[in-house]
Specification:
Layout: E1 2-20, E2 26-45, E3 53-56, H1 68-80, E4 86-91, H2 102-118, H3 124-134, H4 138-143, E5 147-151, E6 155-158, E7 166-172, H5 178-187, H6 197-206, H7 209-215, E8 217-218, H8 221-227, H9 230-240, E9 246-248, E10 255-259, H10 262-269, E11 277-283
Parallel strand pairs: 1-8, 3-4
Antiparallel strand pairs: 1-2, 2-4, 2-5, 5-6, 7-10, 7-11, 9-10
Length: about 280
């Protein structure tokens, strides 16, 4: 029997970075929003003599033991002690090396898919413990709700957004190395201005676009622009065309524009319809 589950992309409306920890991660404080854009995973139960393996429609996606979905499955199996193995097929739609959390979303979807397939009852604290050991965004991706994420991403406070936004994603072909971006941030002086996240959450809960616009800040954005200058070109184009809720997501390289008007974004999307960009029109969940 095949279990099908969606793995939703995310954008960060704020990303504040603090001290670097001994494990290589940083303490962060961010607001993360799920998008309708998603990968689709199919988990097909295998006979007991078979090992779990991963396939994908995207030939650029590694499907060996380095894949976060494989890591997630093995860690979850070790923690929960089930015996079932699966053929896991990942239909990719979320661009990679984009700051959209595609790998983390797939990893979380594997965990949720196994829970659904085997009808498991798992405590939230156990899920978060496993997710934290896999990657910073995996905890958020288990729940797919607007969230304030702290610690290394595992401390979650859900946010009640008053409204949805239409979202235009524009990604240059070149991606950004998350490690390089954070390493450059550690050396950067002075540090960029941080978001007042309490105020941003207020804006989201009230549906106040002005507050949201003022508090959308990503301290990694200058470092990512140094690595991939096209990020700034995209941001400048969107802002010059009248979109004011514009920012890079995560460590890049995707830039997003939020709007209440889908038609405006559809028109703007045509400006980036070339082989130099990946463009996707979606909306917040």
């Amino acid at each position: 029997m095949v279990t099908t589950i969606k793995a939703y992309a995310k954008i960060n409306l704020a990303l504040n970075v603090y001290d670097k920890l001994d494990n290589g991660y940083h303490n962060i404080d961010m607001v993360t929003i799920p998008l309708e854009l998603h990968d689709t995973l199919e988990l097909d139960k295998l006979p007991k003599d078979y090992e779990t393996y991963i396939t994908s429609n995207d030939m650029d996606l590694p499907t060996d033991q380095s894949n976060l979905s494989s890591i997630a499955f093995n860690k979850f199996k070790d923690k929960i002690h089930f015996s079932q193995n699966y053929l896991i097929h990942i239909y990719k739609r979320i661009p990679m090396r984009a700051g959209l959390g595609g790998g983390s979303a797939d990893a979380a979807a594997v965990i949720n898919g196994v829970i659904k397939s085997l009808k498991l009852q798992v405590k939230d604290e156990d899920l978060i413990e496993i997710a934290k050991s896999i990657g910073g965004d995996v905890s958020f991706c288990l729940y797919n709700k607007p969230t304030r994420c702290r610690g290394i991403g595992e401390k979650l406070e859900f946010i009640n957004m008053k409204k949805q936004y239409h979202v235009l994603l524009v990604k240059p072909l070149e991606g950004v190395s998350t490690k390089n971006c954070y390493d450059d941030f550690d050396l950067l002086e002075p540090k960029p201005e941080k978001s007042n996240i309490e105020r941003l959450i207020q804006g989201l809960e009230e549906g106040n676009d002005q507050i949201v616009k003022e508090e959308m800040k990503n301290v990694l954005q200058p470092c990512a622009i140094n690595l991939v200058p096209k990020i700034k070109e995209i941001i400048d184009t969107l802002k010059n065309d009248g979109f004011d809720m514009v920012m890079m997501s995560g460590s890049g390289s995707t830039v997003f524009a939020l709007s209440n008007n889908q038609k405006d974004l559809m028109k703007e999307m045509k400006k980036f319809n070339s082989d130099n960009y990946i463009t996707i029109l979606t909306k917040t969940l």
